[in-house]
Amino acid sequence: MNFWRYLTDPAVTQPAREFATTHVTPAADQLDAEDVYPVDLVSMTAAQSWNAMTLPTRYGGEGAPIEHALGVFEELAVGSASLGISLITIFQSQKIIELYGQESLKERVLPRYAEGLRASYALTEGAHGSDIRSLDTKANRTDQGWILSGEKAFITSGSAADFFVVLAETPVGVSTFAVPRETEGITTHQTRDAETFGLRNGPHVNLVLNDVEIPHDALIGVEGNGLKQALVTLSNSRTLAAGISLGIARAAFDGAFDYATGRGAFGGKIIDFQGIQWYFAEAAAELDAARLVTYQAAQDLDAGREYQRSSSAAKLMAGSVATKVAGMAVQVCGARGTMESAPFGRYFRDAKAYEVAGGSNEILKNTIAKALVKSRPLEED
Fold first, then answer.
1. Alpha-carbon distance 151 to 156, whole Å?
2. The whole model's pTM is what?
3. Is 223 exposed, middle or buried, given 0-12, 13-18 or 19+ CB atoms closer than 10 A?
4. What are the residues whose beta carbons fall under 8 Å from the beta carbon of 258, sequence distance 6 or more?
């Protein structure tokens, strides 16, 4: 049973679909229950050249378009959103270095992604949350490079990351830095708020930087431009985040449809009732629409078109549809949908969590609205 046609090159996405079926789906419930980072699966995806597929070939990547990466992310997330989240933090950290890093930093770090480097994007602080315009983590220039001090909070993928992209404030303003985990002065710890109910790829950690010394070229891009760099990177990754939500929705839809076609009730099958059929018809139509919007956003990125609006619209639509479809799946499956032994609760928790993580629905609406206002034709006097 497969309702979902490939929206990009099947030669790219079919292997990801097969990989998810064979390796990812069987591990998904355990990853969620134990809240662990999928180290083995991430290593396996690197062996498939998926962890660095959009990087230029000179850095060990595939030079593939975002549209191809989206196809892979969607298929893998059908198996497990936890794996998708692990890969998206890898993408975010490599993207900001690719876009803004000095060549010496690119040559030193970017080839490691193809080898399976696990990375995290350390923006958030306990006192600031999503507001990263000013930060308590500080970076000061020295003759040898930079010294970073402070604490980042609630860092996704931080429990297993080998490498961090860290936002810190310099005398000029918020800036971004590349920081290997093995650097002296780095520690991580978990707080009582480390675990989330969805998108569980290991408890979130706080990253403590105690006079961490890094070289001059660890500064990514121009000092003081960190906020802009971070927002551009997040806009790039929102399309892939939408792909993860699409994968969650597809898994919930397929699982519920399979249950409805096999479950007997009142002399027939559940799927024979028109009311149940309408659930699936509406969900399929909305999922089809969200997929088209998301792949259009990927095409905008690849073509160099304005993508702030389309990438935000993709994540907004895909996240909302995923939550709706996951809720529908629970409803259709009745008691089975609420059982801990069934995956439907995981789908619902993952879907809802992604309406908050990676840019909340409210942030996405603000971004779309700003793009609309900016593109409004000027009124003549």
1. 14
2. 0.94
3. middle
4. 1
Structure confidence by residue, pLDDT tens digits, 53-72: 999 999 999 999 999 999 99
User: Which one is the CATH code of 119-223: 2.40.110.10, 3.40.50.300, 1.10.1740.10, 1.10.10.10?
Assistant: 2.40.110.10
The CATH number, out of the four listed (1.10.540.10, 3.30.70.100, 3.50.50.60, 3.40.50.1820), of the domain defined by the range 10-114: 1.10.540.10
Is pLDDT above 70 for 380?
A: no
Q: What are phi and psi of 140, to 5 degrees?
A: -125, 135
Give tens-digit pLDDT for 105-143.
999 999 999 999 999 998 887 776 666 677 889 999 999
Note whether 154 and 188 are within 8 A (CB): no
Q: Are 348 and 355 in contact (CB under 8 A)?
A: no
Is residue 150 left, alpha or beta, with left meaning phi > 0 and alpha meaning psi from -120 to 50?
left
